Structure to design on (414 residues):
């Protein structure tokens, strides 16, 4: 065999043994990567391409991804958002498990999270998580803000029958309101958490929220600053009689302790110490999952002692006996007391503002209200007319005293 034939055969062998980066399947081109999986077996990964010349580059990118993030990430390129949301719900949205009163896993409340998950799944559907971009998140936000909220409400209709008697019936009507930014922000925050969950499990390399900074605009939310005046409080307590008598101790408790609605409703007699005038709020009942202690005012103590006297004397029983909701009674009480735009949670705003106005330090009040972040605490602190006048008066006295000192120094120098 001459040298020419040897060179030709050698060239043919090189061509045959050269790696093939692409393959054609049913008329479509795919980049092809063969690799050894964790189980020791060889696997093949295909990725669609439009040109054979890009095959080698795409294969190299897959190989680098495999080396940097592992097999799980490489195989997750077809994972859809709906599938990811299903995995998140199955693993994360499970009832809380407690040991010795301390939560060790799960979520205490999953209903609100599952509710926020519905519009996310409806929008992103079968879109693969690898294809999600910042513009998709922005599109979701825009769509949700432009989609009004529709709900049915009961409207009272008064009619007069043939005997001249007034008959009241309920008619269902559709009420349409604008969707709140706070609602959309909560949904976006959940989306970010789910995508971070994908990153942690190496199904996603980078969360697209990294390139969508500022899309969750908490500062743009409309913050409520409704504080109940003492005159309004008197009118509200005055109508808490007869069928609404159960509201009086609940209202006083909310106004004097700044406790949240859930903390009040879940309070049991074993949490109340009328000797030391303290209420212990266990970790299982608090929003921040931190136990705390609040004091009992004299008027709240009177109400609690009255309730204890008529109770079964069972320390495991609920203090206020609320098993459902007080929405209807609360709405009626506010209407009869001629109080507008006041929600039960505004009692927490009112209590916090009053504690600060009474001269209690911010740090102590934060411990009482259960706030761990000053920024969040300040959202509940409202400046009343009385507080504003006190600040102005103190400033005026300060400037007057300084001016007197300055005048005295000037006279001595002259």
């Amino acid at each position: 065999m001459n040298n020419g034939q040897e060179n030709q055969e050698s060239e043919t062998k090189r061509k045959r043994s050269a790696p093939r980066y692409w393959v054609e399947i049913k008329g479509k081109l795919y980049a092809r990567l063969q690799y050894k999986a964790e189980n020791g077996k060889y696997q093949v990964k295909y990725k669609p391409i439009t040109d054979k010349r890009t095959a080698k580059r795409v294969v190299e990118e897959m190989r680098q991804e495999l080396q940097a993030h592992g097999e799980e990430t490489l195989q997750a390129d077809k994972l859809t958002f709906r599938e990811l949301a299903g995995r998140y719900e199955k693993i994360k949205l499970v009832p809380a498990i407690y040991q010795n009163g301390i939560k060790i896993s799960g979520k205490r409340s999953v209903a609100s999270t599952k509710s926020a998950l519905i519009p996310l799944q409806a929008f992103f559907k079968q879109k693969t998580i690898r294809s999600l971009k910042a513009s998709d998140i922005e599109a979701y936000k825009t769509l949700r803000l432009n989609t009004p909220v529709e709900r049915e409400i009961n409207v009272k209709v008064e009619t007069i029958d043939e005997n001249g008697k007034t008959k009241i019936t309920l008619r269902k009507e559709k009420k349409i309101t604008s969707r709140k930014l706070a609602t959309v922000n909560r949904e976006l925050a959940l989306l970010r958490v789910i995508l971070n969950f994908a990153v942690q499990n190496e199904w996603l390399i980078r969360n697209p929220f990294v390139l969508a900074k500022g899309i969750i605009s908490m500062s743009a939310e409309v913050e409520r600053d409704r504080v109940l005046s003492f005159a309004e409080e008197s009118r509200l307590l005055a109508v808490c009689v007869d069928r609404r008598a159960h509201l009086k101790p609940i209202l006083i408790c909310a106004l004097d302790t700044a406790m949240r609605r859930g903390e009040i409703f879940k309070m049991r007699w074993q949490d109340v110490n009328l000797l030391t005038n303290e209420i212990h709020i266990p970790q299982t009942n608090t929003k921040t999952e931190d136990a705390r202690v609040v004091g009992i005012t004299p008027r709240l103590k009177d109400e609690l002692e009255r309730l204890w006297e008529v109770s079964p004397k069972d320390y495991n029983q609920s203090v206020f006996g609320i098993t459902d909701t007080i929405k209807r009674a609360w709405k009626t009480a506010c209407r009869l007391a001629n109080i507008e735009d006041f929600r039960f949670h505004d009692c927490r705003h009112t209590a916090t503002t009053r504690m600060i106005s009474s001269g209690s330090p911010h740090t102590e009040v934060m411990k009482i209200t259960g706030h761990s972040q000053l920024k969040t605490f300040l959202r509940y602190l409202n400046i009343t007319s009385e507080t504003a006048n006190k600040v102005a008066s103190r400033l005026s006295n300060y400037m007057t005293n300084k001016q007197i000192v300055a005048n005295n120094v000037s006279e001595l120098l002259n």
Remarks:
- The radius of gyration is 33 Å.
